[in-house]
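Risk register update: the risk of archive-format incompatibility is retired. Evidence:
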Amino acid sequence: MPLQLQKGTHFVANIIGLKLGWLACVLGGANGKPWLGPAVVALIVAVHLALSERAGREKRLLAMVAVIGLSWDSLLAATGLMVYPSGQIAPGLAPYWIVAMWVLFATGLNVALAWLKGRPM
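Archived output:
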């Protein structure tokens, strides 16, 4: 059963989480602490899932976006189009802090960005 919060509170919490998580990922990755972003994102995801009315659907969405992000950014890394300062487990793979950022952004799809649904333009 999800935690009960007013819809506006969940919206604000999601926006704050997106900002803090992004900052932790970028600053951690750039300053030799690539674990920082994923740690913060894990906390944000846990809160997000606890607040979600459809946690199962959200988990599937987050997993799907993680696979897409890993694939896309690994392609960029493997081709040399992107060079990352830290956090790569193996050459040619996207760093884990970038994948965490993809998951973080996915937490906003059904909350902070929900107003875009049904508006393809």
